[in-house]
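Before the break, one more example. Copy the sequence into your notebook; we will annotate it together after we see the structure.
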Amino acid sequence: MTTKIVSARTVVGMEIHVELATRTKMFSRSPNVAHPDNYDSPPNSLCDPVSFGLPGALPTMNREAIEMSMLVGMALGCRIPDRCSWDRKNYFYPDLPKGYQISQYEHPLCAEGAIDIPLAAGGTGTIRITRAHLEEDTGKSGHELPGGLPAAGSIIDYNRSGTPLLEIVTEPDLTCAEDAVTFGRELRAICRALGVTEGIMQRGHMRFEPNINVVLTLDDGREVATPIAEIKNLNSFKAVHGAIEHEVKRQAEQWLKDGIEMGPGAKSTRGWDDVKQITVLQRSKEDAHDYRYFPEPDLVPLEVDDVWRDEVRSRLSELPMQRRNRYESQWGLSAKDAAALTEVPATAIYFDACAAAAANATDLDDGAAACEAAKWILNAAAKLAHERGVDPHESGITPEQLAGIIALRESGDIGSSAAVELFEALCGCDDDPRVLAESRNLLQVSDAGTLDTWIDQALAEQPQAAEDFTAGKDAAAGRIIGCVMKASGGAADAGKVRARLVERLR
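Here is what the structure looks like once it is written out:
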C-alpha cells in the first residue's frame, strides 16, 4: 500500500550575512567596499596584502566592526560574553586567497538573543537568535568584465575580500515563507536603524540563507523529517519567499520518491534559479569538522568589559518595532502607515520632526498633527521622491515648511489641490509657505461679497441646479460650486460657498 502524506509542517532556520559599513576592512586598513563611499570602486582597487592573502601579511582587528556587531547583538537581546576568540575556517574557493576565512566558532561575539515578529497566522512569534559572530567576507567570482562584456573565463574581484561580515544564526523557529520574509525585513530594519549597513540587497549588503526541512505526518500516524537543505546567497525577499515555498514542495515530493530522512550526511546545499523559480543542488552540506576549525594564531582573543558594553549600549537608538508601536499607540497611525514611515531610518527621523513642527504650528493635538504629517509624507512627498529616485525625506521640503502647509489647510486659507501645488513649489526652495501661496494666488477667497458675485454668476448659468438645491437635492450643489470654482480660478473657499448657498436658497 502506498504511503500518503496527510500534512506537512515547515521548519526554517535562517543564516543572515550582514556586510558592515565600516570605513575599512575587518583585518586591514584597506577601504571597505560596503561603505557608501566605495561601492562603485573599480575591481581590485580596494585591496592590500591582507586582502590578497599574501605571505607575511598579518591581520589586525577593526574596533568599529566589533562595536557595530555588539550594537546589533544588543538590539537582538544577545549576551555579549566577556571573552570571544577567532578561528580559521578552512576551505578552498578561488575567491578565498588565503585558503581559509578568519571567523568565530566556539566563542562568538554575541549569543542567545531573540526578537518578536508578527506572524502570518496572527499573533506574535519569538525568533531565537543562536549566535551572531564576526568574520571576513570572501572575494567575488564573476563571468563578466566591467561594462557587462563576457569574460573568457572566471574572473575574481577582491574588493569584497576582508569586508566585515556579521553572520546571524537563528534557531529553526520559522514555520512558513511569509514569516521568514517578515523576520528578514525586521532584521534589515534594525541594522539600518543602527547605521551598521545600508541594507541594499542588490549590492549584497545582506544575504539570506534559509535552512529548510519539512516534518511530514503520514497516513499511518508516523512523523518523518526530510533532510535539511540550505539555500545559498539569496539577496531579495522575493527570492527568500520563492525558495522556501519551492523547497517545501520539492522535499515532500522527493521523500515520496526516495524515503530519505534527516540524518548524518543527508544535508545539502542548493542554489536558487530566479528565472526558473527552482532550487538547484550544488553539493552535499559540509559539517563543522569538514572546515577543520582551529584557533587563529595571528589574533589574540577579544576581551569585553562592562565599561565597553555600557559605552556601546548608550548608542542604541529607538528600534523600528518600538518606533512603530509608538506611532500606533500614541499617535493613532495605522500599522501600514507606521511600517512605511519606519522602513528608512532617515524618513522616520524626518517624520518625527514634521509631526512636532505641525503640532507647534497648529491647534491640532499631537496625534492629529502626526497623522496629517504622515499623509503628506506618504503621498505628496513619496510621489515626488519616487519620480526623483530618492526617499521621502529627500523631497526637498523642510519640516517647518510642511507644518506651514498643514496650518494653511487647517485654517481654511488654502484648498486641497492648491496645497499640493504649494508643496511641489516649496520643494527645494527656502520660501515661507504663506508668502509663496500669496505670490502664486493660491490662498482661498472667503470674503462674502466676492463669493456672492461668483455665486450669482453660477446660479445664472445653472438655474436647474439652483431649483434642485432649493428643493432639497444636496447633490445639485456640486454643479453650482463647480461653476464658482471655475469662475474664481480655484480661489474660492468651497466650504464657504456651500454655506452661502444654504443661507441664500434654503
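Residues 320-439 form one domain. The longest strand covers residues 5-19. Try to locate both features in your own notes.
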